[in-house]
Amino acid sequence: MMIDNLIEILGKEAVLFESFLQLLERQQKALVENDIDELTQVTRLQQEKLAESKLLNSQREEVIKKIKEENRIDGDLTVSRLIEMVDNNRADQLHTLRHSLHHLNDRILHIRNQNALLLN
Q1: CB–CB of 9/70 below 8 Å?
Q2: Which of its termini does the chain have fewer beta carbons within 10 Å around, N or C?
Q3: Pairwise CA distance, residues 11 & 38, whole Å
């Protein structure tokens, strides 16, 4: 089922966000300690994670496109709209993933801003 594929991709994105957040924390520590070697390594790993993120993003977009086609949905297909369409188990999974992704994204933005200040 396409919804299960979407849930799997969103789960992989959440894991990826967590690892990216850890890299940002390593970057912050390296910036504070002026550790150029660590900064270089972290930057390389961040680039790998960004490439992985682009791949997952295109997979997610493709699955969403198929879900929209299968269900004859016009307009945007939001998680809220999906939650209304699926059984309780999948709805719970989607709700949890949406919350996790929002929380991780907020933390990533916060640490990125702190790191930008440290760079300056």
Answers
A1: no
A2: C
A3: 28
